[in-house]
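notes to self, project folder thing:

trying the whole complex as one job this time. last attempt i did each chain seperately and stitching them together was a nightmare. two parts in total, labels are on each line so i dont mix them up again. if this works i'll redo the older ones the same way
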Amino acid sequence: MSSSGRSIIEEGSLATGIITYPLLDQPTPAFRVSWIPWDSGFRGSGLMVRDEIVAVNGVPIEKQASASWTSIGQYGENQFWTKQGAREREVVTLTIRRKQCPGAGWATLDFKGELRLKQRYLSADERWIVCPGGPEPNVEDGFPGAWGGWVEELTRHLTNVLENSWHPRPFSSRFELERHLEYEARVNYFAEHYPTPLSAALKEDWLTGRALLSGRKYEISADDLKYRRAEEEQVAEVAAAARIKWDEFVNAKAGETVEPFPGVDPIRGDLSQIVGKFVKLPPITNRDWISEAGHNWFVSGQDKTYYFVDAEAPAADRMLLTVRRYKRIVAPHVRDEYSLVCQVLGEPRLMAVHGQGIFGMQAEPVAALVGDAMFIDLTVEENGVSPFAGEAAFRQPSAALPPDSASPRQVLEAFVAALKEGDQSLCKQLFADWWVSELSDGRRVLNSSEVVLTDNTWEDSRRRILGEVYGIEVVWVDDSRVLFSGNEFEGAPRIEEVTAEIDHIGYFDGEYATFSKPSFNRFWTLQRVNNGPWRISSTQGI
Amino acid sequence: MASYEKRKKELQDALKLLETDLPTEDTFLDKAIEEYFKARDEVLTDLLELAGDLSDNPRASDWANKLNRGKEVLKNTLETALRYVTVPSAGGLAFQQMAFNYENTFWKSLEALDIGTRRDALMIMRKDLRAYHDDLKVKWEKITSENRPLLEESRKAIKELVDYVDKSIGQTAPIFKQLQVFAGDFNMDFKELLKIVKDKARELAGKTFGEFVIQAMRAYLNRQQGKAKQAVSILQRILDEMSALKDEYEQHINYYRDRVISEVRVLTAVPQSRRVTDEFLKKGGVDPAKEKYMELTRLVERWGTDLPTNGLKDDAKEFGKAVTDKLFGHIVEMEKSFKDFVDQHKGRLFGELAREVEVEMVDDRYAEDFASALAGRGLETKLREWNSDGRRLLELDLEDTFRAFEDTLEDQPEELQKEVRAYVGAFKNELNRDMEEWVKKIQSSSDEVLAIYGIDKFRTNFERRKLLDVLRGN
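result (full assembly):
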């Protein structure tokens, strides 16, 4: 004790000084650290708020500890140590498990700290003070409210921020941050004017709280955000590029292009006039497709002249794949109307067209204007892909049903990718078609009901991912736990479950950072049956 | 309505053995079993009808809806059998969960068989086969209707050409006759000369006879040389005449060639369509349909054995047999459609190409028959004779003449014979030089005419076997 005052020791108050919250119903019974006071023997030991104490001096926490108010961090802890015959400054080892976030699972760590007796402090003039060198509890220093009340209020606030932020409860990170910042001026004043272990500890905790509420920082590139562009804007952009490129292509081929109609008789005509030349065919619609023996062809005919374009040949196949890609990454609808520039092939072909045998020329597409909305130069090919004009500006589709061996993290990532791409069907497939409920006595019951991603939930999620949420990252996946071991009843399946945590990323003051709102779903559960694929079992959107 | 009661009985028997502290649980479970299996029977019976529906309507979504109905029934009965029991007994809950879970497995595994989609696949195969059957009919009609006039035009072109050759031969006939007359004259003149010389040999002797012989020979040979020149020029005229008709002849050939190009384009459609047919039947014929059916049969059988209880297995086997029997109806229909297909298209656009189809489409013997007829006209033989035997025709005849003439001198004095032979030898050399030139010219002309009118050339130009290759897709 400093010479400027003295302390009064509360006899029989020997304890770690920490405050905990019991988690005794979970598979690993524990006491979660809620607060580490400035004068606790564990302050500075490495122990953190939210660590889960699973053993004290090597003795595991047990489920029946729920009845014990003398457990670690509980209000009667001192009685436990007294009973143990412990002495002041005796070193205690706490074994804790700490969430490895970002990451997966838990780390188990040991921390050592002293048992201490609780003390109260008097100034040199024998007046109560909040800590050695600190102010008297009833002094205000121009702030609304005295220091004693303020320290208690700040402690409650910091306990709440450090223990409960981001965890399953309605939580608005930005609202909480605003509230948190309201303490900043007095925290700084306190530290500057009363430089004591208490003010230093409170400032340290306040800064930790600010960092926590401000959220994890992320780097998000323009490429990551390509999915967010408005559909109308994307459609207009691609259509404008399409028209320009189509005209350019048609003009470039003009010298080698012949009028398609009326054409040369494919049997008696002089085919050398058209073979190898290009023809610009008028738009071909769905009605102009024919199927011969299950093989599809585009047919363009006028004035007894016919052109047959093999819809399953490589170039046409690439064209149709590109149309599908457009529907996924630009807009879900494009008019099925194909204007084609084709090269006329050497061999005529006989086709049955609407019940009539027709001889026509075979033609291979080299360029297509689809629905007046997209242009594809089919002479350009890379790895079996012919991109549409302007495609480079779009994010390539990445969503796909992951393999059955995919981890829970990969399944959630596939869900996020599909959500960004607007692939509702794929998202639905990632949800479980079973459901495990619990009876009031904790017994689990298997149900067939499907976990449904409703249209409303889907639309809300889409609105978010296209609005205030700029990205989603899976930041943590718990260890799996067994819901059904397979022995519960004859024929019972083995069902495992994991919890996963995602970061919703927002944009604040020029930075991308995690944030949360009461309506957000940060925690997800995934299950699998008999080692099958992991599927989302939370009935929720983002 | 079919009845699948084995699993029901199994559950009812098990329920009887269940000892619970809550009698109401038994009642709830028993009621749920009754309701569920009644509804399950109805659903399975409806599914059979869907499987056996031979119409062209797709039934996969009906099948899925009906399966969902089965799952819904399960949810409303066995799954929620104990919903009114606040705290079910351990035995009761385990029974309910087991019953529900196994039935859930039954529906899910039945759903995984995807029988509705497989039924639609068989239906689509049959429908596609009928559609393709119709497509091939119109294609064949188109091929034959396009081919017939072209074939006629080609036949006409061949016939016209042969007629033309006849005409050419006709035009040169008088000249031939002249040539034949000339050959007769030649021999006749020589016989007269021999007679005179023999007569004179009896009147004259020695030098006088020798002079006579030489003079007679000179006169005779001069005249023969003139005649030979004339014969050569006649022959040359024939050849020149035929050569002059070459352009007209070529026009006929070009016309025919154009017809053949068109014929090729039409005939190409035959192997093209046959390839499509082969590909189609590989994927869409009876055999692939049977393979699909057999695959499903195996899956259904495995389904019946993979289910967890004997009751479920028996129900599944019974339903599986019924459903595969129903689906076999599609195979029977498919076989009928395929028989129609084969009857209609065999030998044409399916199976081995029939010889009568080849004849009908190509008539490959036609040109050959005309080639033979052309050969019968003897033009080529004559041209070849003139060509290869020209020298013999003129030269050997003269040799014989000279020999016969020398024979008349055998009783004359040695010196006379020598003198006459020296003269004849000198004349012969002179004549041979001329002959050499004429023969070369005739040979060249006849080669040229042969190149135009020869049978080989005809066969090359009018070969129809290549059309046969096109038709066969070789």
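what i see at first glance: Chain A has a mean pLDDT of 93.
need to look closer tmrw
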